[in-house]
Amino acid sequence: MQSASPAPRYYAVSWDQLHRDSKALAWRLVGLGKLKGVVAITRGGLIPAAIVARELECRLIETVSVVTYDEEVRGAPQVVKPPSAASDGEGWLLVDDLVDTGTTAKVVRALLPKAHFATVYAKPAGRPLVDTFVTEVSQDTWILFPWDTEAQFIPPIARSTGP
Ligand SMILES: O=P(O)(O)OC[C@H]1O[C@H](OP(=O)(O)OP(=O)(O)O)[C@H](O)[C@@H]1O
Ligand code: HPA
Ligand SMILES: [Mg+2]
């Protein structure tokens, strides 16, 4: 029998993997040349942006914050902190952890139309909005980031099968 809705797929990313994937992103971006600075899309873009900025020897980091959820309900995106230092984005690198529906990306691209937009992970709906990314995952996959997860005890299989 098929269940009404399929079990969600998860793609769990460890700190090590995030570091490796963010460095892989930096390798793809090194050809951009000298940057004026990096704009991190908070909060998820902060750690990838720090890793990429370190690899590209860029010390100037600006942030932009877009809130799209209000108490778990998706609402109209609100820019709660604009990237004022980056003007129209020319010469700046914009970094986020992932692009999913593309909602955040659309808002930020409109603020910084000349920035190069890079994410570590991309889902198909948002991929056309990204200039450079590392790994694509399917739209129905939820990426579990290390800052959202923690290790926990799982009972042995034999205990769940019963006598
Ligand atoms: O393409 P979208 O559908 O807009 O989804 C992608 C955005 O969603 C997540 O951020 P979130 O808004 O959950 O906030 P956070 O980074 O502060 O966790 C993620 O870090 C991206 O910024
Ligand atoms: O797949 C995801 N994982 C974590 N946060 C997210 N925000 C939008 N999509 C995702
Ligand atoms: Mg985010």
UniProtKB/TrEMBL annotation:
Q: Tell me which UniProt keywords the record has, alphabetically.
A: Cell membrane, Glycosyltransferase, Magnesium, Membrane, Metal-binding, Purine salvage, Transferase
**GO molecular-function annotation terms?**
xanthine phosphoribosyltransferase activity
Residues involved in Mg(2+) binding: 97
Q: Which residues bind 5-phospho-alpha-D-ribose 1-diphosphate?
A: 43-44, 96-104
From the UniProt record, give the pathway where this protein acts.
Answer: Purine metabolism; XMP biosynthesis via salvage pathway; XMP from xanthine: step 1/1; Purine metabolism; GMP biosynthesis via salvage pathway; GMP from guanine: step 1/1
Q: Which residues bind xanthine?
A: 100, 143
The membrane-topology field of this record reads:
Peripheral membrane protein
Descriptive protein name: Xanthine-guanine phosphoribosyltransferase
Q: Which organism is it from?
A: Siccirubricoccus soli
- State the gene name recorded for this protein: gpt
